[in-house]
Amino acid sequence: MLIDNKAITDTVQHYLDGARSGKGDDMRPAFHEQATIHGYVGPDAFFGPIEGLFAWNDENGAAVDVETHVTILDLVETVAVVRVEADNWTGHRFTDFFTMLKVDGAWKIMNKVFHLHAA
Questions:
Q1: Nearest to 50 by CA among 118, 98, 117
Q2: Which residues of the chain have pLDDT under 50?
Q3: CATH assignment of 2-116, given 3.40.640.10, 3.40.50.720, 3.40.50.970, 3.10.450.50?
Q4: Count of helices and strands (H, E) across the chain
Q5: CA atoms of 60 and 79, how far apart (whole Å)
Q6: Strand pairing of 31-41 and 106-116?
Q7: pLDDT at residue number 119
Q8: Phi and psi of 75, rounded to 5°?
């Protein structure tokens, strides 16, 4: 289990590195190619393929001052649920929930569901 915990947090670190750099391609290794994203930005739905996150991150720019906290909520052999709190992501605060799957021995984020907190 400890090996999986490290592998999961290492995978999530790609996502966080991409937030800090403002480059979607830096996030890409964390996600399965068929991953999806769901949440709201104000009243607007942000649903679809994970490529939408990468494009948004490229447009949004580097979040060099983002503060994050990662919690593995549950882990059952090949499935994990992870919570990420991100504060000051270019002035925004997000709570993310990732469902992760161990695919061919590597942990990948399959789905991101997020909440954008009011300012």
A1: 98
A2: none
A3: 3.10.450.50
A4: 3, 7
A5: 31
A6: parallel
A7: 83
A8: -145, 120
H-helix segments, 22-115: 24-27, 51-60
At 6 the pLDDT is: 95
Phi first, then psi: what are they for 99, rounded to 5°?
-100, 130
Q: What is the pTM (predicted TM-score) of this model?
A: 0.95
- With CA atoms as reference, report the closest residue to 72 among 105, 50, 97: 97
**pLDDT score for 2:** 76
Neighbours of 82 (CB within 10 A): 23
Q: Which residues pair with 86 in a beta bridge?
A: 68, 94
Domain ranges of the chain: 2-116
